[in-house]
Amino acid sequence: MKIIDTHCDALLKLQLTNRKFMFQESPLKYIDSDKLDANFQRLQQGKVKVQFFAIFVYPDIPADEKWQHALEQVDLFYTQVIGKNPVMKHIRKWEDIDALKEEEIGAVLTLEGADAFGNDLAKLRHLYRMGVLSIGLTWNNANLCADGAGEPRGGGLTLLGKEVVGLNNEHRIFTDVSHLSEKGFWDVMELADYPIASHSNARALCDHPRNLYDGQIEAMIAKNGLIDVVFCLDFIKKDTSNVTIPDLVKHVDHICSLGGVKHIGIGSDFDGISAHIKELENASKFQNLITELQKHYTETEVEGFAYRNFLEHRPGIVVAK
């Protein structure tokens, strides 16, 4: 069964290794490096149809260097991900997914944290032109747009952050709530036309600030948003020593119990996590998750979780019933 995965950090891994190349390491080859959870070969083996690639800049990078770091990751996307793999096709607008051939894999650029553009909206518009289709206002820290989930102050969106959400709406871009503070989340609910939680689980099952409370999940459903379950062990259960695929499926069960069966997707966080669910260690193992889901849900429901819910909730897309 084909998969749409709305979050991985392969670009960051590629960048970090490239920057170390002159000192100690060889650059990673995106096509087959065993150091990349979501390399090209593993996407093929796992039947991934569309993979989202996050641009992420660490908050401790000096402010005047952050844009350069973001551009390096965009360059790696163009040169290594799609440049050297002809069947990887850049999805620049949502309709491009429908044009993918049987053997092709769609590649979507996203931004995780507005630190990359600061308060320069011209840079944000450049990101739109480069093909970025989803914007997360924060990582865990605070920035000029909002407070993140790890910021003790817990503030919401700034005026700049609200302006960014408005621009996302105009450009048919997702606004990603996965790393926002709780107040920031509710500000987005008021403003965003296209909300997504690209990689978050249910806080009722695992009390982690990166997960969503039931009320937040219900609000996402009411806004026609997507909630994509994440494979990070800390977000699945408190005891991370033995996390299995059925443990992850419990989060799917809980979101379904709140009415979210048509709003669930997958946001693995491959290459952004250092420990893995058993039998779900990289993108080649996606079908193990599908097999477990098929034990509990109808084929139509599992297809929804795997890819169809995303297709039906893309910004501005009207799907024939």
TrEMBL record:
**Name listed for the protein in its UniProt record:** Dipeptidase
* Domain of life of the organism encoding this protein: Bacteria
Q: Give any GO molecular function from the UniProt entry.
A: metallodipeptidase activity
Gene3D superfamilies in alphabetical order: Metal-dependent hydrolases
Native source organism of the sequence:
Planomicrobium soli
One GO-annotated biological process of the protein: proteolysis
The residues the entry assigns to the signal sequence are: none
Q: Which PROSITE patterns match?
A: RENAL_DIPEPTIDASE_2
**CDD domains named among the record's database cross-references:** rDP_like
